[in-house]
Design a protein that fits this description.
By secondary structure, the chain is of the alpha+beta class. Helices cover 33% and strands 15% of the residues. Helix 1 runs antiparallel to helix 2.
Length: 173
């Protein structure tokens, strides 16, 4: 029941940011996704609390850590969000920007304000195969095996940030 509603939240956030694709205005794209996500979350019968967000470190639009969302009726959830992951990709008309949202029972998500977190996503075929607990090299091998591809045929997206230099070096091996 809630999965469909969450998919709707991320779909609408992605759609809202899509109007800014290629317009070189990452702030407006992020704001549109954030405003849409907040609006849609507030329609859901739940007591939601944002516990992990994106935006505090880089002064971007955001759903605030500690912000309560939902109708205040229904089950209690902790929520991790990034309404527009890869804002630069959206602004520069590059592929692979995402609307990200995770929901868990209250107390199940780590409270980590002002912290960049590792994220890993991929094809549904990779569920149970790759993990943040694995080394980069192991994940590349496991993903290639699960997708029946060579490692060189995998499409890997990493944000071009100083904090990712070591990760990028490992991927290029």
């Amino acid at each position: 029941k809630y999965i469909e509603k969450i998919i709707n939240v991320t779909s609408k956030a992605a759609l809202a940011s899509s109007y800014f694709v290629g317009k070189k205005d990452k702030f407006s794209a992020d704001k549109a996704a954030t405003d849409s996500m907040r609006f849609e979350l507030n329609k859901i019968n739940m007591n939601g609390k944002i516990v992990i967000g994106e935006g505090e470190l880089d002064k971007a639009p955001m759903l605030y850590i500690g912000e309560l969302v939902g109708t205040k009726n229904g089950p209690t959830f902790d929520i991790a969000v990034d309404p527009l992951e890869c804002t630069n990709h959206c602004a520069k008309d590059l592929p692979d920007a995402l609307a990200v949202l995770a929901v868990a029972p209250r107390g199940a998500l780590l409270h980590a304000p002002d912290t960049y977190m590792d994220k890993l996503c991929g094809s549904p075929k990779l569920v149970g195969k790759i993990s943040l607990l694995n080394s980069v090299e192991d994940n590349l091998s496991l993903a290639a095996e699960a997708l029946n591809k060579s490692i060189s045929d995998l499409k890997i997206i990493v944000m071009d940030r100083d904090r990712h230099v070591s990760l990028i070096d490992k991927i290029h091996l």
